[in-house]
Write a structure and sequence with these properties.
The complex is a heterotrimer of chains A (about 775), B (about 170) and C (about 160). Chain B is an alpha+beta fold and about 170 residues long. Helix content of chain B is about 20%, strand content about 15%. Chain C has 7 helices and 4 strands. Chain C has a 4-stranded mixed sheet, covered by helices on one side.
Chain lengths: ~775, ~170, ~160
Amino acid sequence: MAEKIKVTIDGTEHEVEAGENILQVCLDKGMLIPHFCYHEAMGPLGACRLCAANIAPAADKPGRLEMTCMTRASAGMVINVNDEYATKFRKSVIEDLMLNHPHDCPVCDEGGECMLQDMTVITEHQHRRTRFPKRTWKNQYLGPLVHHEMNRCITCYRCVRYYGDYALGSDLGAYGSRNRVYFGRLNDGVLESEFSGNLIDVCPTGVFTNKRFREVYTRPWDLQTARSVCVSCSVGCNVLPGFRHTDLRRIKPAENDAVNKYFMCDRGRYGGEFVNLPSRLSDARVSGTSMMTEDGIDAVAAQLKDIATKHGAGAIAGLGSQRASLEANAALTAVLKALGSDRVACFGSQADREAARLAASITASRELPTPSLPGLEKADFVLSVGGDLTAEAPMLDLAIRQAVRQKAPLFIVSPRAGSLDKFATASLRTAPGTEAGIVKEIAAGGGKDFVAQVATALKSAKSPVILCSTLHGDAALVGAVYQLAKSANTADRPCGLAYYYKSANTAGVALARKDESPEAIAADAKSGKIKALVVLERNAAAEPALAEAIAQCEYVVAIDCYENATTNDASAVLPCVAHYQSFGTILNFEGRAQHFSGLNIPGSATMASSEVLLNIAERLGASEIIQGLDFHDVYDITTESGKAVDGIRTGDSGALVKSDSKPTAPPSAKPASTGMVAWHIHHTFGSEELSAMSPPIAELAPAAGLELNPEDAKSRNLSDGQNADLTKEFGVSGLLTVNAGLAKGTLGIRVIQTAVSAPRKEVTA
Amino acid sequence: MIREMLTGLKITARYMFRRPITNFYPEEKPMIPPRWRGRIVLTSDPDGEERCVACYLCQAVCPVQCIDLQAENRPDGRRVAKRFDINFARCIFCGFCEEACPTYSIQLTPDFEMATTVRTDLVYHKEDLQISGTGKHPNYSFWQVSGVTIKDKEKGEAINEAAPSNYRSNLP
Amino acid sequence: MVPEHIRKELSDHCAHYDSRRVGLIWVLQQLQEYYGGWLNDDAVREAADIVGVTEADAEGVATFYNWFFREPVGENVIVVCDSISCHLCGCDKITAHLEKRLGIKMGETTADKKYTLLPVVCLGNCDKSPCLMIGDELYDNVTPESLDKTLDEISSKPKAAAK
């Protein structure tokens, strides 16, 4: 803690930390000094000259004009923001910045949340006195996400400082000098960074604006917003989805000190348009007849009761959802309990289930510290194992980039090179299934080359962090990483360990007390033992392990927000609202329970999936079960602070959950296979179920297909761009891409959700 | 009491011999001052294109929230109102919208004859509001002074704009 | 592309600094000389590659400085000072004379690719205004007559061997 000192700001004495940035001090205290180039995430630059104030080192010393962002607080300092000369100076700076501003506020998408507008009003600049012609620029095409309007630029350099320095992107630059500075790419083209959408928030004017929002533009003050949590991955970034009329118009990051502060990834920002799909469900459908949701609930409850009485309680099972809230999954168990059954499966395969449940129980045991996003940024050693962070948990990637900027060594062990690999100190390409062995070697301390390098770096690190993917169903790896972190964890040097998951609430459902292997339920459904399946917010018909079961099961109830393969097949469909209109609690990768809230908009369903299920349970006469429904009975969780999980409010920092049970021993690693192993390649865009349906994400998604290492391709006489038929061995075929960044002995299968990229729904009157 | 009655009768008698002041409306139209705040219209640019750029400012300023619109981008680069509704059943003709309009599009006219027996007819849509004239500001064209590109007006071609800069130029 | 040995020399030079990026200006200077006085897109890309910075970064530096030319220039670049001292001492006349004699406007290159005419702000030689530079040579107290003489001399010189 820095020393506390006293400074005088505009005649009032304030206590601040020595050496603190004066501008930040004033902003924190609610005094708005006009500024442009300063951004808390990127620090001061002193480029815009707008934050000037009269600063004297002591009361009896003469003051002079200084940039507050570039001045550090020292004891006795006297700061006069409202000094006459400083005020005049700020006004003249704005006048200069406005010289070439293009007079297009009425059609500018920044209007209403534009810093330049605000600062111009604050400084009371009104008339452009010069008569010289305005400088103009040509715009660039920057892809489907970001719109470029260079004329509005005031050269604060925030964009390049964010894009290049903060997010470590390489294709946006500042060119030229003097009054001729241009911010853009070298040529027209799609911005390469997965975090390019943040340019929109970072830019204080309208140079970078949201291209999707632009198409259905509405002023920010007209948007209806309810604070929510992103559903696109397991990081759980806080977001502000904005609705107007019948549509979701845009998503912006919401500040939360414990998770994301200013930024979010493009998948989260642009992936929310699934809410607007023409295929969103608004009515119930029972045996082909469309009806009101309430009537549908009646029909479904009656049918389920009928099946339970006819075939016994064991004839009904539920398929829980990794993207639905804890409440919804708990309500599903309540429905089943009312029918006398307790059979639920939340995962897509036994391997996924084992890996996720082990990882979640390790995290929730709180034996090892789990780093939050701000914590990750301060790590001085990062080891990423088993997956591609950028694709599987994008914001973890951005946090690690901050650690890399602070010269933290980054090591990656995975079967395929991702976009984080170019910042890695060293990365090791290894076939799927062999990662656990390597992690064990690192833990053992011996080895050479890569293993030795990692072990040495880990030993000398002060705040190391290990990240591991659970998306590839490798429980042995999850266990091995746990052992490594445990061995590296000492009292004076905690070793952070974080697992990341497939969906927004995978960590939550992985802590459910009752959860079966999906294969067991599928087998029973196929044999006819299970007569009815209640599928909660899940496209189970598209999952290999369950597709047949769904097709053969007598009675399938699908509860979802949009039409998919499962709702098409189902005997009864009950609509629920999409995530951003819904409410509930979800657990992110660090086991942080966060509450999200939503709002009802016309043209869609009216109930959240949890409400639909509770209504069914009520119709089944199970009010007692509903009354007694407790999170802690359904999930093996309590909060660390003792706060009830359902007492968490939207927008607070949530609560880290704790589990009482000790992590179970991981299954021993499968013997490394000598042949080729299939591995699912997740992409930032297109691999996640919901966001993949959003048109801009679908546009950026790569084509589905297969990938092979050049050597493997050669040995199989396959070449790039060829149609590879591996149906016999792996049951897949597709267009082959030869990728030198793929480990030998790996067959990469790109997971690309077949996006229903229907045109955006018309804005109805 | 008789005295009071007589006072009243005196006034009546005085008015009996005055000329009647009845206006024969609607046969005789009254003189309405040109700056009267009556029926709202959306005017057009001198080049005949619609002036409204759907900036939402009239909607924001409207104290009774009788304006509702939705913007869209036309293929020629112009932003226009896809939908523009004014509910005259609610409008109080305060003229704030006209003051807020940055493009001189929305204007109040000296017309008040909008009575109807059907309430929903008082919701005027864009086609009811749009006129082809320029109204009170005959020469202003927003698109010609703003730095946004539209069809037939590239960057640097607006009023008082320099040709697009080139940061690679050898000239300073 | 520059030959491998020059490339290696440039790359080795960058290794002298704590951060390779420091060598960028020097590399750009060498490449500008190599590529006939100006930097084309390939040269900037090559510089970025040699130094190990992003192309956007190299372009930023190449367009920031006056003496990096990102557009083609002639064999001799004439820069005429138009700052205060030179302006008072009649640089306008000099510029007009040059434009007339060479038949080009400011910023243009003669058809024979011999001369490029550019303005500059102060050559630090104000006591001997008006002044200008042709290539690396500084000429002070310039008059139209002295300028003619100088240009005649340069024109009569054989063309420098192309690299």
